[in-house]
Amino acid sequence: MAAATAQSMGNLPSGAGICTSAPDMLFVPELIFGGLVWILVASTHVRPEIPQGWVMFVSVFCFVMTFIWLIIFACGGHKNKSGWVTADFAYHLTAAFFYFGASVPLASVTIAMKNTTIVPQVDQFRYYQIDIAAVVFSYITTLLYFVHCVLSAIRWKSF
């Protein structure tokens, strides 16, 4: 059983195989939850804008890069396996680090938003609820990228 797991972790999938291999099946949830963070943060009106801008940068950057990564793997564009395994690990480590670095300020701004009266009361509560959802999805996305990073590291080491 352990040998089968190690062998499946050592191969880079292509085509439909990305939907069944251990770390690569996380591409779709990363895209879904990352897209939700992007949409939710874009639909709020929060002061200060600086943390929200960082969250938007991270969510858009990771969404686009993950989509490109998914297309490369699906089309079989990875010929030099050792380089792609290393790049896969490095990208998901960077994405997990970026998302964690964006989730913490997003949560901080959301907590601070609870008691401020920058926008009218009805809109403030609605934006607060949207920001809470964005924080939850941001941490879920961080966890997905971290798990993908760990599984990519296992594949990298077994290669």
TrEMBL record:
Domain MARVEL: 18-157
Subcellular location: Membrane
Gene Ontology CC annotation, any one: membrane
Residues passing through the membrane, by range: 25-42, 54-77, 89-112, 132-154
InterPro entries to which the protein is assigned, alphabetical: MAL, Marvel, MARVEL-CKLF_proteins
Membrane topology, from the record: Multi-pass membrane protein
Main location: membrane
GO biological process: myelination
Keyword Amino-acid biosynthesis attributed: no
Key words of the record: Membrane, Transmembrane, Transmembrane helix
Gene Ontology terms for molecular function: structural constituent of myelin sheath
Superkingdom: Eukaryota
PANTHER family the UniProt entry points to: MAL-LIKE PROTEIN-RELATED, MARVEL-CONTAINING POTENTIAL LIPID RAFT-ASSOCIATED PROTEIN
Protein name (Swiss-Prot/TrEMBL): MARVEL domain-containing protein
Originating organism: Electrophorus electricus
